[in-house]
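Here is an idea for our session: we take a single protein and study its fold together. Which protein we use is up to you, so please pick one and set it down. Once you have written the record down, we can walk along the chain together:
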Amino acid sequence: MTNSSFAQVPDGVHSLYRRFRPGRFSEIRGQDHVVRALQGAVAHDRVVHAYLFSGPRGTGKTSTARILAKALNCTNLTDGDPCNACASCVAITQGASLDVIELDAASNNGVEYVRELAASAWIGTAGRHRVYIIDEVHMLTKASSNALLKTLEEPPHGVVFVLATTDPHKVLDTIKSRTQHLEFRLIAPPVLHELLVDVIERASLTVEPESIEVAIQRAKGSARDALSALDQIVASGLRPDLRANFDGLFDALARADVVAALGAIATLSRDGWEPEQLAENFIGELRQTFLLLTAPDLSSTYGGDRERLAAWGQQIGLPGVVRAIEALGRSVREMHSAPDATVVLEVTLARLTHPELDANITSLLERVTKLEKQLAQGAPAPAGKPAAPTKPIAGLRRVGETTPSDGIATPPPAAEKEPEIVASTSATLDITEDAFLTRLASHVIPSLLPTAQALLRTSEVRSFRDNTLTIALEGPNHRPAAERIEAGLAAALSREFGVRISVTWEFDATPRTPEPPKPTFAGAEEDDIGDDELTGGTVITGNVHEDLIRQAFPGAEEVV
């Protein structure tokens, strides 16, 4: 459509989207299905009395309605397309025609206004058709829509209604059923590129190719937005740095570098970008990356942007891209109520660059995918981190805990690490049973936890043969406790004697009461306490509670 001639506009109009508004069906871009329907209806005199145009903003709904009005009143039609040069076409272009009535339902949605509009439809007109263009028709109230129904269903001869809306689902079904519905679509980037190049040539503008890509990217399928962005670039002389450069964030995600990610956010923030803007725009680029990885034909990017995003998608991987879109989408919602939106964005990027911070399925899938990719490339799998020391079971000594041995405290190990057991698994311990029992009582048992020591003091040693210690306990009710301390006792025996010693249990010992512990003083070892110290304290006679009170409050007397 390079041979198009845009319509004349009133003097003083400088906006590109108004100066180069399409004036004929052949000039409409990206809506071929609508053009075929309307141009064919005009050419064959099959125009209906009411149309409903719906679609995103800036896709040509109002312009198409005006072109339809021109075609219905043009005196020099060519295959259903208006000439755009006769008196009627020029008047409609300049907004001076009495045959075209445009109104905005957003500001004129009262019942009385709609009734006056319906009544004026019965007034005669100088042209062949009178066309009513009602924009944002979904803003009409229910009462106003009902007031329009009868006239819309059976208008006077020569009257055509064109209703335009961006939200067709809000239009009453009774209105829809009385119209022919034509849906406008977002305009593809190649079509927008063709439109901008045509406008630049006709307006004799000097624009860099990179700036055209910026305008198309900001338009998001809207011809009016594309021309407005181009107008801004031309008027301000800005280079194609009108959008944020997210290559730093893409690189940080690909390398899982949280420092680089936070640095990229800080740089963009210094350039004046708000956290919400950054998150929303980055989601837009991630969406295009996702489409390039899954369905390239659906992506609206092209040229250098298409190659750039496709390369980042290959580096980050599909799981990483999906996880980033979901995480940033949640962060956008959280930013609206957060005291500092930047913190929300920074935490989200930290989680994205460190998948181990999240326990959801997407992050786990991303980690598995990275491992598979590393293995496929021949790289060794990363070594797992050493397990954190867990709380020892009964019978095992805690790391760094001092244990008595022959009355002498054992110093803690030089480094905090689990004690290594170096013992032969095949050697037989060459020691008498009495010597074994002596070392068991003096060295092994004192190194165990108090619960294990208490249980073993009520046990009987039956035998020690072939590196196997048999211990008897009273009744099977002690079995759970014995099983809890078995591993710890076997480990302590192996450390003491240098060979692997197993422990077996019998539960038929004669009941006996453990010996009561001797009294000790805090901070002193048992062997250091003499008989004079045990008997040197104050002997409490009489009532114990009264004596304790007298010791706490010397000189106090009981008042009866």
